[in-house]
Amino acid sequence: MFSEKTSGLVVFSVAPWDWLIGLAETGFSTPLFVNKASLALPLVWPQWSHFFTLHLLASLFSFTGIIYSYSFFSLFFQDNRAIAEIQFADYIYPAFDQIVNEAAKFRYRSGNQFNCGGLTIRAPYGAVGHGGHYHSQSPEAFFCHVPGIKVVVPRSPQQAKGLLLSSIRDPNPVVFFEPKSLYRIAVEEVPENDYMLPLSHAEVIREGSDITLVGWGAQLAIMEEACNDAQKDGISCELIDLRTLIPWDKDTVEASVRKTGRLLISHEAPVTGGFGAEVAASIVERCFLRLEAPIARVCGFDTPFPLVFEPFYLPTKNKVLDAIKSTVNY
């Protein structure tokens, strides 16, 4: 689609009023971006009319303003949906004001008379193996602090389709973080039919009795490997995928911790201020007398995301396994 260094706003115009908009910044052809967008269209609209490319400066502030404005004007039409894709979540920060001060507050400031007409912002996030500090960040905690938006993170292709369709059809603004590492390594049968997975409902992936593990996104695969190794040592782990971070399913996590008496939370984002801290604080409030060990967090370090030192930065299987054993043997 782009044969030279360029930045573009790709607008997929779907009859009569629906748009899928994505920012592409690349120095070569972008099959990854085009394929992702093309695959997303049939999920929502079986037939679509045409698409075109509008070249712009790579301004995420202006870009998000466009899709926010569209979602506002879509109030005058029925069943409209605005879907934006920011090619890397690391580039979402210039759009922060539009998302948290406009889209998130639109219903509240109107006295519940209006909403954003269905606004979903897709953003690939997390480590990819060679991204360095500008293509590997996990900024989900920034948005979890903002009332008025939802934050969703799938762990697999099948989950991604069901959660994305639910996000698109939700009347609230949704920031949909997609683990970019899964684009290349995830293999899974995905139903062709239209289906949705409920937002704000955590899923117990693996049942256990000794310790509860909580995570989201690509980190779930790492945690499951650690659970398998812990099982060899006689430790029974219960693994929970939050799926939706805001608002998150406290009841499912609480029920699990009341059973196991222990909790471990893991995510790629830096440990300080990460969303794992919110999970830990909430569970302490609800389950303090049932806890048999301090809550463990296995997360990224409080440094910029490194390039050559990425293997040391990430919360690996061995780090999670060590924390499991330490918590159980406390």
UniProtKB/TrEMBL annotation:
**A Pfam family this chain is assigned to:** Transket_pyr
**Is Mitochondrion one of the keywords?**
yes
Which GO molecular function terms does the record list? branched-chain 2-oxo acid dehydrogenase activity
The residue ranges of the Transketolase-like pyrimidine-binding domain are: 1-185
Task: Name any GO cellular component annotation.
Answer: mitochondrial matrix
What Enzyme Commission number does this protein have?
1.2.4.4
Per UniProt, subcellular location reads as: Mitochondrion matrix
Q: Which cofactor does it need?
A: thiamine diphosphate
The record lists the membrane-crossing segments as 52-77
Q: What is this protein called?
A: 3-methyl-2-oxobutanoate dehydrogenase (2-methylpropanoyl-transferring)
Q: Which organism is it from?
A: Saponaria officinalis (Common soapwort)
